[in-house]
Amino acid sequence: MKKTVIKYGIYGAIAICGLFLVSWFVLDDLPLSTQEALGYLSMILSLSFVFFGIKHYRDKENEGKVSFKNALVIGLLISLITALVFGVLDVIYTEVLNPDFMDTYYSQTLKTMEETMPAEEFEVKKAEMDAQKELFANPLMTFLFMALTVFVIGFIVSLLSALILQRK
Asked: How far is CA 145 from CA 27, 30, 86, in A?
């Protein structure tokens, strides 16, 4: 089980890093909302290795059987590897490669909100955004948030994969 988790966790990590780099270099001119949607799509695609890892373990290492619990554990561990690597990648991106990202993201988001919201609601949301911006100025918080985001999606993928692939 350990080899499967490491192997498919690394595959997921490579996939999420590769898709991140492609989106950074190729899709940089797209609006932030589109980039954000593509980011979530790349997380889901990268976490498809959870399904393949559980299936590999069941079919190749465990004589065609895997319990729901073992499948879920395998999926969560693969997700954890992918999530941790993405958290580190995101910190490198926001701190080293594109240190202006947070300022750009927040200014564009505030501009969109100002154009689409009533003034009173905008002021409330702006205060929330300012607090979030301060929070994300800390690289540890950026790491935790991004890793947790990927892990939560990985939990859902692991749950669904374990339900589909369990076989006694």
From this structure: 23, 23, 10
